[in-house]
Structure formats: C-alpha cells, structure tokens
Specification:
- The chain has 399 residues and is of the alpha+beta class.
- The protein is built from eleven helices and 18 strands.
- A hairpin with a 5-residue loop joins strand 4 and strand 5.
- Helix 2 packs across helix 5 and helix 8 runs antiparallel to helix 10.
Length: 399
C-alpha cells in the first residue's frame, strides 16, 4: 500500500505593503515522489542545479497565496545509483557561512576518523561523535556551525549543519535536507544525506539519534515512529517530507538591496555570526534556508511575533488508515483521561470499570502504528489484563 501524505501551505499578507516570497516546492528525491501539485500562479519559477523548485510571488496587502501537494513517501528506492557531476560534488563539499568548513572543523573531523580510510565508516564515526558530544535544545541561541561548536546545544538545524561541515571536511559530499514530519501543523525538521559511491544518497539524522538516546521522553506520545538511536545512520522513520535541499540559496529574482533603518526596533537573531532580521536580511546575498519559504516585506513596521508571519501556515498530514488510527487514538486518549479524572473526583465505581477500555485501545494504537512498540506493548498487556479482570468480575456479578 502506498504511503501518501498531503502537504498544504498558505501565506497571508497581514502587513500594509507588499510581501515578496520565495516558496520551495517539494523536490523529487530518492525518498519522495510528487503525485499532485496545486498552487497560486507565481510571478516566476526557477529550478536550481541540485533540484530545488522555487516559485516567486508578489503578495499585496490583504492577499493570500496557497499551495497544496500530494506526496508519496518511498521506503524502497530505485536500484540505479545517481552519479554526481564534478560540479555537484564541489557544491556539496563547499564551505558556506552557515555550514562553515574551517580549520577547527577540519581538526575535529580528522581527529575523529583518525586512521579510518573507509568513507562509510568515517561518516559513522562522525555520527557517533556528534551524538556523544552535543545536546538537543530548542530554540537555539544562534544559527551556524561556528556558534554550535562553542555552545554544543542546538536544534535539528544546528546538528545537520555541523554534520555536513564535518563530512565535507574529509571530502565526503553531504547535503542538508530541510523539511517536516508528517505530524500535522508546523512540525519542522532538518537532517542530512551523505553521498557514498556504492550506495548513492543515504540519510543520517544526528539530532533524532541524540534526542532518542538522551531525551527519549520527548517522543513517548508523539505520532512519529522512533527508531533505535543507532538506526538513524542510514535510515529514517519514513514519516517526513523534504521542502528543499541544502542551505544558502541564490534568490531569483535577486533579493531587494535595502538598508534597514532603526534596526534596534526589530527582533534580531544571530545567523552565521551576524545580527539578522528575518524578512529583511540575507546571508551574503543568499537566502539562508527554505522551510518552506523566505520572504522580504516592504512594511517598515516589525512583524508581530507569530509563526505564520515568518514561515506561513503549513501542515503535513498522513492519509488513509494511518490518519484514521491517529484520529481514533486522540478519541481513546481523551476518553481515558476524562474517565480517570471523573473517577478520582466522584469515586463513582462504574467509571473504574469503563476506564480500561479506551486506555487499552489508546496503547494498542501505538503498537499498530509501530511507535515505541516495546513500551506500549507492555502497556497494552497491562490494560488488557485489567480489562479482562474487570470483565470477569462484571460477569460474575451478573451471574
């Protein structure tokens, strides 16, 4: 059965002037196939050399642009391996302000791999190194490899930037995959893919490996299937889509050249070592990353601090049986919680008899969806036994 998801996006211009917006349409990759696309007519469209499809929009005050996609997530990929041109290899080996391959990065990378010469084993050693020495923290204080090396705390973006830099430092092409989980509204995620001659592009997710290993509680009730932390080298949960590939994109048309007055009135953020105003600045004439947009707004008043003003409103949802089970899970979970709460407040005995039913089904839904199977298998058995005992007791009372 095909694993399909729906991805919808919209941006409403709530300012009093024009907004110029660059939107990345999900690219075709080894792990996703675009089945259907519908979107507002752009002013201009462009495809770069690494496969990003970028649409440019001019959105007037009070207008809304919309886009929707149907995407098939692929677990079994094609047998043929993509061959990178020298230009592509150079691109994925380059040093950039955000993915900075400097002397410190080279020193760390070569110190980690030591005498290992096999490229795959080298990238595994770098994977283990990052998981061991860095910690997940959201939101990050700044963006870019240089800051992450010092702070050692960051989100998925920081993990992926550093892993890309370390791989590039030892001559292994590595790209940053910017996208989202299929968990509903605004579930952004960033990971990597490395290129190995005998295998093509394979996924590596250092931030998920780190959180699963060190902060497992984050995902106990999450709709995302988690793997063992070591499995995030070479594998993913197959519950994510890619918006765009890599960082620092050349905008077409060019980003407006403006000198922002009164910078102190805006919310600024450190990107690649410089104070950055989102929606007013670029990184050396390039868009830092597309998740799934970047924009320029003409209004001289700062944007209100709301997510939709900076990245738009978007969501990625599963379809079919997966969506149905997730919906039923919510019903079972809330039912079990309410029954338990009412019982503790009222001490009404029938509630204690009813509670195990939704609790059992809630835990079973995780097992069916293959999410934290060991934990929820034990929980399912536990509530199953309680349900059985309650049923036997009820039958005995009737008889």
């Amino acid at each position: 059965m095909k694993n399909k998801v729906t991805y919808t996006f919209q941006y409403f211009n709530s300012t009093s002037a024009n907004v110029y917006l660059w939107l990345a349409s999900p690219p075709e990759t080894r792990y996703q196939k675009i089945i259907n696309e519908q979107k507002s007519l752009p002013v201009q469209e462009n495809e770069d050399m690494i496969g990003n499809q970028i649409s440019f929009y001019k959105i007037e005050s009070g207008e809304t642009m919309k886009a929707s996609y149907e995407i098939e997530l692929l677990s079994k990929t094609e047998d043929s391996l993509p061959e990178l041109t020298q230009e592509e290899k150079n691109f994925f080996l380059r040093s950039t302000p955000m993915v900075c391959v400097n002397e410190e990065v080279r020193h760390i990378a070569f110190n980690v791999i030591r005498s290992e010469t096999n490229p795959k084993e080298q990238t595994k050693l770098l994977f283990f190194y990052i998981v061991k020495h860095y910690n997940y923290k959201f939101p990050p204080k700044a963006r870019g490899v240089t800051h992450f090396l010092k702070d050692k705390n960051g989100d998925c973006g920081e993990f992926s930037f550093l892993y890309a830099a370390l791989c590039r430092a030892i001559g292994i092409p590595c790209r940053v995959m910017v996208g989202a989980f299929t968990g509903g509204k605004h579930q952004p995620h960033v990971w990597n893919e490395i290129y190995l001659e005998q295998e093509g592009w394979i996924p590596v997710d250092t931030s998920m490996a780190t959180t699963v290993k060190k902060q497992f509680w984050r995902y106990i009730f999450s709709p995302i299937q988690t793997l063992s932390w070591k499995a995030y080298y070479g594998k993913t949960d197959n519950q994510r889509i890619t918006f765009s590939i890599d960082t620092e994109h050349t905008p077409t048309p060019a980003y407006p050249k403006v000198s922002v007055q009164n910078r102190h009135i805006y919310n600024t953020f450190d990107i690649a070592g410089k104070s950055f105003i989102w929606g007013k600045d670029v990184v050396q004439q390039k868009i830092p990353y597309l998740q799934p947009i970047y924009f320029y707004y003409e209004d001289e008043q700062p944007l209100k601090d709301r997510t939709e003003h900076y990245v738009g409103l978007w969501s990625v949802h599963e379809t079919g049986n997966k969506k149905l089970i997730l919906l039923l899970r919510s019903v079972f979970g809330y039912s079990a919680f309410l029954l338990a709460m009412f019982y503790f407040v009222t001490k009404w005995e029938p509630l204690s008899i009813l509670f195990p039913v939704p609790a059992f089904l809630f835990c079973l839904s995780f097992v069916i969806r293959k999410e934290r199977v060991l934990f929820f298998s034990i929980a399912t058995i536990f509530f199953g036994i309680i349900l059985l005992m309650v049923s036997i007791g009820a039958i005995s009372t009737i008889l």
